[in-house]
Amino acid sequence: MIDTVQGYYDVREYTDEAKGIAWDTCHKIYVLMDDEQVALMREYGYGEDDPNALATSDQLDPAEMATVVMSWYKQACGLKFINAVYSDKTIGNEGFVDIIAQFEGNEGNWDEDEDDDE
Q: Are 46 and 54 in contact (CB under 8 A)?
């Protein structure tokens, strides 16, 4: 199980410089590291159905962004992860950096039958 205090501090390292945060209201949680990523998430529809699923650094300070991200993480499905996303594809894995990787500390929290059509 993820230590949520440590998770908060891990997220906070990125929200200090982030331009925004976004959540698909299921399992994809992003810390957006530049304005281009904020615009891209809006283009993808983040925040349309749920306006609270996208926030910018103009709306929230870094500590508030980290708190919201961890709140989303607690609500997210078992496939959840938190990535920092950069437009510079030389950073991390094509611009994606794991803050809390998918399935990290998630043992026993994923319903195997969730995707089963039987």
A: yes
Question: Which residues span the domain enclosing 23?
Answer: 4-107
Domain membership flag for residue 69: yes
> One-letter amino acid identity for 1?
M
Helix (H) or strand (E) holding 100: strand 96-100
Lowest mean pLDDT among 44-53, 65-74, 84-93, 97-106: 97-106
User: Could you give the CA distance from residue 93 to residue 91 in angstroms, rounded to a whole number?
Assistant: 6
Q: How far is CA 118 from the centre of its chain?
A: 31
pTM to 2 decimals? 0.84
Is 114 inside a domain boundary? no
The 3-state secondary structure of 17-63 reads CCCEEEECCCCEEEEECCHHHHHHHHHHCCCCCCHHHEEECCCCCHH
Q: What is the mean pLDDT of residues 46-54?
A: 92
Q: What pLDDT was estimated at residue 71?
A: 94
Task: Please report whether residue 118 resides in a domain.
Answer: no
Number of domains present in the structure of the chain: 1
